[in-house]
From TrEMBL:
It comes from Fictibacillus macauensis ZFHKF-1. Pathway: Cofactor biosynthesis; (R)-pantothenate biosynthesis; (R)-pantoate from 3-methyl-2-oxobutanoate: step 2/2. The lineage of its organism: Bacteria, Bacillati, Bacillota, Bacilli, Bacillales. One of its GO terms (biological process) is pantothenate biosynthetic process. This is 2-dehydropantoate 2-reductase. InterPro entries: 6-PGluconate_DH-like_C_sf (IPR008927), 6PGD_dom2 (IPR013328), ApbA (IPR003710), Ketopantoate_reductase (IPR050838), KPA_reductase (IPR013752), KPR_N (IPR013332), NAD(P)-bd_dom_sf (IPR036291). It holds the Pfam family ApbA_C. Residues 174-294 form the Ketopantoate reductase C-terminal domain.
Length: 298
């Protein structure tokens, strides 16, 4: 299967590595020419969780320089970077018959991807922990699942193909439930780890952080009108445990001085809360605190 992976961050490098391990013909499309050249020269090295590292020679180009058609397009950029990718998917003949698979945090993009011209569109959430060590080197810092669903249409061949042990792919028929569950976890883990500059596991073992996590959790549950508290809480703690050595993407963004996904996560919850006239003081605090850190950190 010919696969285009768009995005050379931690998740993009990890997905490109895993898909290559499966036998896919992968081309990785990056934001910069420099990273594409580095990958063409050195390949990608992936340190799998609990296993030895693997090296993959990969084709790489700067996005959107697609030279051949793809069967599957895996989009691993962040929500605030999606506009150019969506425009490309609407206009390029190279991906007219491809199946786009979106792997973003938050839920604000779902309505946009439903409008794409492709007959089959997929989305999902990544529970694997990943850390980009360099432009060509990625570490899987925690093992989770790749939870996928069809936004529109269906393709059983692709579904079977992606159900490979290395991906730990699980298909869901309830798209909203899947996205809400991960959004709830992101709304707790990402802002707290970024504000306190800690690994995900700290939310399990630091009593004060655990208390703050529960406050954010209860607000998110209320906004999303979730019914099974114990199941949602178990999911949150399982994510923290499974990625306990991981530094969240939001923390990495703050450290790197790049925009975070706070708008797609906490910002989305705040808008939903306003529509329901629900107070969310803790979510509002972390939202503005992260916004402040984005401004003060060069």
């Amino acid at each position: 299967m010919k696969v285009a992976v768009i995005g050379g961050g931690a998740i993009g490098l990890l997905m490109a590595s895993m898909l290559t391990e499966m036998g896919s013909n992968v081309t990785l499309y990056t934001r910069t020419e420099e990273q594409a050249n580095a990958i063409m020269k050195r390949g990608v090295k992936c340190h799998y969780f609990g296993k030895n590292e693997r090296y993959y020679p990969l084709h790489a180009r700067k996005f959107p320089d697609l030279k051949e058609e793809a069967d599957l397009v895996v989009i691993c950029v962040k929500q605030h970077q999606l506009s150019s990718v969506l425009a490309f998917l609407k206009q390029s003949a190279m991906v007219r018959h491809a199946i786009p698979l979106f792997l973003q945090n938050g839920m604000g993009h779902l309505s946009s991807i439903e409008q794409l011209p492709q007959s089959v569109v997929m989305a999902g959430v990544v529970e694997h922990g990943a850390l980009r060590i360099s432009e060509t080197d990625v570490q899987q810092t925690g093992k989770g699942a790749l939870r996928l669903f069809f936004v529109k249409g269906n393709n059983q061949d692709v579904q079977r193909y992606l159900q490979h042990p290395i991906l730990d792919a699980v298909f869901s028929e309830n798209a909203r439930h899947t996205m809400e569950e991960k959004l709830l976890a992101n709304a707790v883990i990402n802002p707290l780890t970024a504000l306190f500059e800690v690994e995900n596991g700290a939310l399990l073992h630091n009593e004060s952080l655990r208390t703050l996590a529960l406050m954010l959790f209860e607000e998110a549950r209320s906004v999303l009108n979730r019914s099974d508290r114990e199941k949602d809480l178990a999911y949150l703690w399982n994510i923290c445990e499974g990625t306990k050595r991981n530094r969240s993407s939001m923390l990495k963004d703050i450290e790197n001085g790049t925009p975070t996904e706070i708008e797609a996560i906490s910002g989305y919850l705040i808008k939903q809360a306003e529509a329901q006239n629900l107070p969310v003081p803790y979510t509002s605090f972390v939202y503005h605190a992260i916004k402040a850190k984005e401004l003060v950190i060069p």
